[in-house]
Fold this sequence. Notes:
The structure holds 2 protein chains of 2 kinds.
Chain A: H1 3-16, E1 42-48, E2 59-64, E3 75-80, E4 87-92, E5 98-103, E6 108-113, E7 122-127, H2 130-134, E8 137-140, E9 144-146, E10 149-157, E11 166-171, E12 176-181, E13 204-207, E14 212-215, H3 221-224, H4 228-231, H5 235-238, E15 244-249, E16 254-260, E17 269-270, E18 278-283, E19 288-294, E20 300-307, E21 316-321, E22 327-332, E23 337-342, E24 350-356, E25 364-366, E26 372-376, E27 393-399, E28 404-411, E29 419-426
Antiparallel strand pairs in A: 1-2, 1-29, 2-3, 4-5, 5-6, 6-7, 8-10, 9-10, 10-11, 11-12, 13-14, 14-15, 15-16, 17-18, 18-19, 19-20, 21-22, 22-23, 23-24, 25-26, 26-27, 27-28
Chain B: H1 2-5, H2 9-22, E1 54-55, E2 60-62, E3 68-70, H3 71-75, E4 79-85, H4 95-108, H5 113-116, E5 119-125, H6 133-143, E6 151-155, H7 160-170, E7 175-176, E8 186-187, E9 192-195, E10 200-205, H8 212-227
Helix pairs in contact in B: 2-8, 4-8
Amino acid sequence: xxxxxxxxxxxxxxxxxxxxxxxxxxxxxxxxxxxxxxxxxxxxxxxxxxxxxxxxxxxxxxxxxxxxxxxxxxxxxxxxxxxxxxxxxxxxxxxxxxxxxxxxxxxxxxxxxxxxxxxxxxxxxxxxxxxxxxxxxxxxxxxxxxxxxxxxxxxxxxxxxxxxxxxxxxxxxxxxxxxxxxxxxxxxxxxxxxxxxxxxxxxxxxxxxxxxxxxxxxxxxxxxxxxxxxxxxxxxxxxxxxxxxxxxxxxxxxxxxxxxxxxxxxxxxxxxxxxxxxxxxxxxxxxxxxxxxxxxxxxxxxxxxxxxxxxxxxxxxxxxxxxxxxxxxxxxxxxxxxxxxxxxxxxxxxxxxxxxxxxxxxxxxxxxxxxxxxxxxxxxxxxxxxxxxxxxxxxxxxxxxxxxxxxxxxxxxxxxxxxxxxxxxxxxxxxx
Amino acid sequence: xxxxxxxxxxxxxxxxxxxxxxxxxxxxxxxxxxxxxxxxxxxxxxxxxxxxxxxxxxxxxxxxxxxxxxxxxxxxxxxxxxxxxxxxxxxxxxxxxxxxxxxxxxxxxxxxxxxxxxxxxxxxxxxxxxxxxxxxxxxxxxxxxxxxxxxxxxxxxxxxxxxxxxxxxxxxxxxxxxxxxxxxxxxxxxxxxxxxxxxxxxxxxxxxxxxxxxxxxxxxxxxxxxxxxxxxxxx
Lengths: 432, 235
């Protein structure tokens, strides 16, 4: 091949190669990261401290999940950050060197080095300037990796502790970069569907090939810090939940369209296949599965595609879409069950399996090959169930395509650790 | 030559900004089609902001002639697009992709000589043991044949000690691959850096973002920004 021909091929390649699985990570994290392709070795569990239990502090707990390890299914490390901050979600930086653990109460982000010793993440620093630098956004919900920076979707604000909030960006070094307030009726940023805009936020994830970002909406600190039993009796407060999802132009960070999605749409899961231009979410209060998709005319739409659980609903709080876009796992906090849907036709999901995980269940995470799933139990410190129903665990299962089979369980109460919440995978094989 | 042109940068930027506002200048990048990977219309330049991510680190490097030079000296105030690669990489989605995209950007500047003089393309190897100045020169000859457009320089470093601080400060991760790995002896995230005339990183492109249309739009956005009069405190 001549140099000219080689050059032509290279240039053509630069504009025509389609998205590859290498762009992805294990099913539900940022597409900008290297993913763990095989067996994950560790699950990092961001855990809420409980007063009177152990040291009472929030902590990042490392569980060995390598079946070949003598410590399989055991806790091998725990690092307390001191105090209780309503530990919630987190995420790795795009180079997967750091794990950013977000905490709602006090709006802190605890940064851990996971590269130096993947079996025992090392605390690096705390980012505590988010409310001040962002112009009043509070309640960092999680951390989504972008190239060289982190996107922090927030839940609330320092002015009234309501649901008006923003997406905030930091550099990987921990320096504040920008704030993007969620659209409202009076400040919609030119988005279509501005009449629905409520300014609420929760999750935010990017579909790079379409240059779009999709955000969802929950509620503000005044609600999520309040005891759940008390909250549900307050009709006025129960109106203060997100009813929308927003599609953004990712590059410009400008809202394009606001969808009416009633009942607090939470986690956003984009499909992976190159032509699958859609995402799922579940509405916690309405117990519905929603699809946000690009229609045949290139317009983005949102529609309800399934009811989850019985008539009363099950408070679906987390979802996990398999890497082949065919199977969706939905955890219901209300009845502690995981429901599995065949979503081969995303417009017509069909429930194919149901598994009782515990008396309460919140997060669900799966391996890239879809064979292993992990569940944790805690939703929010003041929303977890009481008494015997307040089980606190990490439970692992195998999925054989038909049913979930338990493999191991760690009792976080018995181990005096606290309330386990978000799970992220680690592996020493990522680093050489 | 370049230093002589530097005072003209704001004037050029204002001209571009004005022409774009008047719709008089065609943007060559808009002639590129949407693809399966970049399936969207790019925004208008200047309709968004690019936050300053961090200072672009300086450091000693070697040019194709093997002579030492510092990165900041090369930039000479131009908008710089910096790509870290290694020539032994055989993954078409990584280093070859980055160099192919820089070639595309260079071609896009062909029709706008004034713009071309204010853009610098840099390809810097993170494999100095193999990628000597001679190797980088041969690599450069494949991509950068004399045909005009923005300057494109192919660089390496003396050794790993000289390279390490640059990788660290830019945040370019490089790991050894498993022996016999199909993509080459290293694994690394694809990263290309957009650096403004004040030596600040303004964007980082990775998988899914290294769209020549988008990068060129960002370049125009920085040029428009440079042309915007600053409001002084006294006013």
